[in-house]
Design brief:
Elements: E1 3-7, E2 10-13, E3 18-25, E4 33-39, E5 46-52, E6 59-60, E7 68-73, E8 78-83, E9 92-99, E10 109-110, E11 114-119
Parallel strand pairs: 2-11
Antiparallel strand pairs: 1-3, 3-8, 4-5, 4-9, 5-6, 7-8, 9-10, 9-11
Length: 120
């Protein structure tokens, strides 16, 4: 069983940056597809970015393209979400997720979420 634990959330001023981390325990991310999502109050969960953990081209939502970047660290078995030029609309609970091959629409594993609040 894989457990995902996010960290790095908190309060940031508008225009600032934050980096979220997602560490896996139970097994490595090898061969997984990893992604980041967020959910703001009263809104549906939103896909932000995803890619194969081993590398390759990332898929990034238009709403955050150019500001958010997904990356991985094999040595630490960790996935990151770098967020820049943040604004109030980025306030949400952020989740990392992972899915195993064959890669269907659904993700198999989810973290507990970390709160990000952007102050204007």
């Amino acid at each position: 069983q894989v457990q995902l634990v996010e960290s790095g959330g908190g309060l940031v001023q508008a225009g600032g940056s934050l980096r979220l981390s997602c560490a896996a325990s139970g097994r490595t991310f090898t061969n997984y597809y990893v992604g980041w999502f967020r959910q703001a109050p009263g809104k549906r969960r939103e896909f932000l970015a995803g890619r194969l953990y081993s590398g390759g081209t990332a898929t990034v939502a238009d709403s955050v393209k150019g500001r958010f970047t997904i990356s991985t660290d094999n040595a630490k078995n960790t996935v990151y979400l770098e967020m820049n030029r943040m604004n109030a609309d980025d306030t949400a609970v952020y989740y990392c997720a992972a899915k195993i091959p064959p890669f269907g629409y659904e993700y198999n594993y989810w973290g507990q979420g970390t709160q990000v609040t952007v102050s204007s």
